[in-house]
């Protein structure tokens, strides 16, 4: 496939930059389908801000990040969902006196997601 230089605009600074045919070929060889959205200088600045690590999304981290990427892998614990009985993996040590929900049941019990609140409101 033949590539031609493209003129793009940086999403951060608004400056015009050229996405060269060589860069497009490189992107294709890596399986990347989207054109860059930042100019080279803003891309470098963002990479430096992220500690040189790639990945994550626009929220700044490891798929959601929450800033936890510098702490290494988080230990996950197995628990049984208090609602449906399925196994759930959670990032905290479950306690006998507190219910644990799988992601599906938790989502449906979260008032912000429009589900029914299965938790006792007096406990929270």
For this entry, give a set of tags.
124 residues, two-stranded antiparallel ribbon, two-stranded antiparallel sheet, CxxC-x17-CxxC_dom
Short description:
By secondary structure, the chain is an alpha+beta fold. It is 21% helix and 13% strand. It is elongated, with a radius of gyration of 22 Å.
Structure, described:
The chain has 124 residues and is α+β, with helices and mostly antiparallel strands. The chain has three helices and four strands. It has two domains: 52 residues, no CATH class; 37 residues, no CATH class. The strands form two sheets. Strands 1-2 form a two-stranded antiparallel ribbon. Strand 3 and strand 4 form a beta hairpin. The termini are far apart. InterPro entries: CxxC-x17-CxxC_dom, Zn-bnd_dom_prob. This is Zinc-binding protein.
Largest sheet: 2 strands, antiparallel
Question: Which structural category fits the helices and strands?
Answer: alpha+beta
Poorly predicted ranges: 56-68, 117-124
Strand content: 5-15%
Return the string of H and E elements.
EEHHEEH
Question: Roughly how much helix do the residues carry, as a percent range?
Answer: 10-25%
Total helices: the number is 3
Q: Output the strand order for the largest sheet.
A: 1-2
Tell me, rounded to a whole number, the average pLDDT: 79
Separation, N- and C-terminal Cα atoms: 59 Å
Number of extended strands: 4
What is the domain total for the residues? 2
Describe the global form.
Answer: elongated
CA gyration radius, whole angstroms: 22 Å
């Amino acid at each position: 496939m033949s590539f031609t230089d493209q003129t793009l605009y940086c999403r951060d600074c608004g400056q015009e930059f050229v996405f060269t045919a060589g860069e497009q070929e490189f992107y294709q060889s890596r399986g990347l389908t989207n054109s860059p959205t930042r100019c080279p200088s803003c891309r470098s600045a963002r990479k430096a801000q992220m500690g040189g690590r790639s990945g994550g999304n626009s929220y700044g981290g490891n798929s959601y990040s929450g800033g936890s990427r510098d702490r290494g892998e988080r230990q996950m614990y197995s628990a049984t969902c208090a609602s449906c009985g399925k196994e759930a993996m959670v990032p905290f040590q479950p306690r006998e006196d507190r219910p644990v929900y799988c992601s599906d049941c938790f989502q449906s019990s979260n008032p912000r997601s429009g589900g029914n609140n299965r938790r006792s409101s007096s406990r929270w």
